[in-house]
Amino acid sequence: MTDTRASTTTAPAVFEAHAGGYDDDLRRRLIPPFDEFYGAAVAALACRVHPRRRILDLGAGTGLLSGFVAEAHPDAELVLLDAAPAMLERARERLAAVAGANVTLHVADLRDPFPDGGFDAIVSALAIHHLDDDGKRELYRRAHDALSPGGVFVNAEQVLAPSPQLEARYQRWHRDASLARGASVEEWEAAVERMRVDRCATVEAQLGWLREAGFADPDAPFRAYRFAVLAARRAA
Ligand SMILES: C[S@@+](CC[C@H](N)C(=O)[O-])C[C@H]1O[C@@H](n2cnc3c(N)ncnc32)[C@H](O)[C@@H]1O
Description:
The protein is α/β, with parallel strands linked by helices. 44% of the residues lie in helices and 22% in strands. It is built from nine helices and eight strands. Strand 7 and strand 8 (227-233) form a beta hairpin. The radius of gyration is 17 Å and the shape is globular. Residues 9, 11-12, 15, 59-62, 64-65, 82-84, 87, 109-110, 125-127, 130 line the site of S-adenosylmethionine.
């Protein structure tokens, strides 16, 4: 595991402290469209015609998205980047069973330079919204430059509603849908506490930043209230 920078941001510290309790069943309760959301991210990778040899997962955490990607692309080399080593340690355990030797773990901040070597695809789930808007724009530019021609970028993300009124409604929907899926009030309140470090942006703003970064065909192939999958490709 490469350690390029100690964690100085609030969000990785929050996840580092909660790594032990970050389990897949809880994520299913707190992400009401769980299967559709992660499924759309994997599908967005698959529907672009490009060999997917080397894939970078930004804010990989316990490897939830990487696990789905590895199942769909068993021959891919996966590079998982996160600033919380305890989260990546859990990813190592998960991926040992799926992708074995094709996995590299990289402890780094999202604002650091990406690992060398270039990538055929860059994916991310529920991580980039921890950066401020300038940080997201800058990351999109670096992601574009780190991709090989024709390479794919997929960001499965928690997003901001287009207006404060809709945001309030979507937050209520999120709470009600999570409780309906079996989350306890305590689990929901702990999630709200973790979400205090979120800096979500709208789908429209992010599609604009992807376009500005040079990406072709930026699109949101999945969208449900506070959850969206953004996908784009570097021109061939
Ligand atoms: C909600 S978790 C998502 C993990 C995984 N992608 C998933 O879908 O389950 C967010 C992850 O992003 C990481 N993260 C947040 N801000 C970061 C930053 N500035 N640099 C590196 N990692 C960061 C956290 O440490 C955490 O593991």
